[in-house]
Amino acid sequence: MLGPFTTKKENKLTEWFANIEKFKNKTVVITGASQGIGEAAARMFADLGANVALLARSKNKIDKISSEINLNGGKSNAIQCDVSNASQMENAIRTTMKMFGSIDILIGNAGVIEPIKSISDMEVSDFDKVIDINVKGVWYGIKSVLPYMINGGTIITVGSGAAISPLDGWSHYCTSKAAVHHLNACLDLEMRSNSIRALVLSPGTVATEMQRLIKKSGVNPVSKMEWEDHVPANWAAKCLVWMCTAQSDDYLGKVVSLREEGIRKAIGVI
């Protein structure tokens, strides 16, 4: 049964939900789960019967989301975690294992883009922060979860078209997304034979808080886009769910772009 996260306007999703693999008793770990794509994914996976571990630095936000999921009959746990800290990431994974007994899916969604500045104006510490979260944080998550996926699992990293399209003021962000796209390819190369499904989601521009920050910067063409030009976060969440099924196996080791009409049709948003 769909929870309150699914509105009447989205009732057409019911048909799609009925045709995908069930997630009951599967455990999903989502980083950056306090807002945007991470929050939308957490609610959607919970609606589908999965156990959900919400990881983020903002404990108050994930506590609220987790409480709402649980009150609606779902199963979730909120774990405060800074993904750029390897020990915190390891502890979060261990905590999830203790609570749910298994981990089947990891979604590396945590990411930052600020400050939006040219290379000449950016501080070294600013660049380091983005790399620590957007690259090292993804690697730490993968490293921490693999020992618990001895029977296989799905690892999805949220990437970006910025990985292949340089943009003014985004040198740190573009670099970080290019890095995790290649990290995903390496993970697939090394671990597909161990039944690890590795994929990247390139969601396009999504109506999240990050887009408000980009708009405020006034830098490069993305900041000139209107709010209605961005896709809703639940489109990205639907794509993440689809990527956890055998329907997406042709994309293992590759990038799934939500900009593509074929992908949008596959997940039922057009």
Structural class: alpha/beta
Distance between the termini: 22 Å
Strand content: 5-15%
Rg, Å, rounded: 17 Å
Oligomer: single chain
H/E order of the elements?
HEHEHEHEHEHEHHEH
Strand order of the largest sheet: 3-2-1-4-5-6-7
Tally of individual domains: 1
Biggest sheet details:
7 strands, parallel
Shape: globular
Task: Assign a percent range to the helix content.
Answer: 40-55%
Low-confidence stretches: 1-9
SSE blueprint:
Layout lengths: L12 H7 L7 E5 L4 H12 L3 E6 L2 H13 L3 E6 L5 H15 L4 E4 L15 H22 L7 E6 L12 H21 L4 E7 L6 H9 L15 H11 L11 E3 L3 H6 L4
Parallel strand pairs: 1-2, 1-4, 2-3, 4-5, 5-6, 6-7
Helix pairs in contact: 2-8, 4-5, 5-6
Quick structural overview:
The chain has 270 residues and is an alpha/beta fold.
Would you mind describing this structure in some detail?
It is a single chain. α2 packs across α8. The chain is an alpha/beta fold. The protein is globular and about 50 Å long. 43% of the residues lie in helices and 14% in strands. It has a single domain, classed as Rossmann fold, CATH 3.40.50.720. The longest helix is centred in the middle third of the chain and has 22 residues. The protein has a seven-stranded parallel sheet, sandwiched between helices.
What are the key terms here?
about 270 residues, about 15% strand, disordered N terminus, globular, seven-stranded parallel sheet, alpha/beta, 9 helices, Rossmann fold
